[in-house]
Design brief:
Blueprint lengths: L12 H20 L17 H13 L5 E6 L1 H4 L10 H12 L6 E4 L7 H5 L2 H4 L7 E5 L12 H17 L3 E6 L14 H15 L2 E4 H11 L2 H8 L8 H14 L20
Parallel strand pairs: 1-2, 1-3, 3-4, 4-5
């Protein structure tokens, strides 16, 4: 975390004292914060590519080393209330990973918190992500950032950039998600969500990260069926996916990571195993 300071040789006594205090503070923080907490990717430089990251995930899935997968975000990632007691998309992912793909030693951590924004996640990265020493970090945010523009679009972009940089500095693979579309007419305070979705795509493209584009997937469903049908079947309220919506979120993630298998229950096949 760079701290701007003045030149003590050109300022008065009070500024000189302030200079040395700031230098001491910077030194203290450098000794306390983990290296990834002050990470940034220089403008125009891509630390990795989405293709390379997908290969890393494939290697992790094929290898013997146990992995830690962290999902962070807001209430959608948390799976709060609206799943009717069914699994949220991180839980469906855990079932796909630990049962169907037989990676029982892997750990899936969900630190989604209802009401949270990129600002809160960025300010809490050690607790929500860093402490777990993850190999992969999934981030879905924006639905609260856009609410009454409580996080300005430019700040949202900067926060996402910082989150991606810090995840990469942990030697982890970042995955960005666009949030699902909402019923804007019934949630007018979030009418600007499409601008935030576009910004997520922009950041993912510029930083060359894996992107799971739920917004595009859901809008394709709306185009082929109808908004009324998709909203009724996939949402529990104007914002939050129900359990069917979470299955759609999980399926899109599986397809992006090349682990979708229609013969498996987490991908839509039947769970029923016969007479019993």
């Amino acid at each position: 975390m760079a701290i701007p300071v003045s030149d003590p040789m050109k300022d008065g006594g009070s500024r000189s004292r302030r200079f040395f205090l700031l230098r001491a503070l910077a030194g203290t923080l450098a000794g306390v914060l983990p290296a990834w907490a002050t990470a940034h990717v220089p403008a125009g430089k891509k630390a990795a590519s989405a293709e390379e990251d997908l290969k890393k995930i494939a290697a992790l899935l094929d290898g013997k080393k146990r992995g830690v997968w962290v999902f962070t975000g807001d209430s959608i990632t948390q799976g709060a209330k609206h799943t009717h007691g069914h699994r949220s998309y991180p839980e469906i992912f855990a079932e796909r990973l630990r049962w169907e793909l037989t990676r029982v030693g892997d750990i899936v951590v969900n630190t989604g918190m209802s009401g949270h924004t990129t600002r809160q996640v960025l300010n809490d990265m050690e607790w929500r992500v860093g402490q777990f020493r993850p190999g992969v970090v999934s981030v879905m945010l924006g639905t609260n950032d856009c609410a009454r523009n409580q996080v300005a679009l430019a700040d949202f972009e900067a926060n996402l950039n910082a989150i991606v940089a810090q995840v990469r500095a942990m030697n982890a693979v970042p995955i960005l998600h666009t949030p699902n579309p909402i019923i804007a007419g019934k949630a007018p305070e979030r009418a600007s969500l499409p601008e935030y979705v576009a910004m997520i795509r922009k950041v993912a493209g510029r930083e060359n990260t894996i992107l799971v584009d739920h917004d595009a997937e859901w809008k394709a469903g709306i185009a082929s069926r109808s908004a009324e049908t998709i909203h009724r079947e996939w949402l529990n309220d104007p914002l939050h996916p129900n359990h069917t919506g979470h299955q759609q979120l999980a399926a899109a993630l599986f397809k992006t990571l090349n682990i979708f298998d229609p013969a498996q229950p987490t991908c839509g096949a039947a769970y029923y195993e016969g007479a019993h």
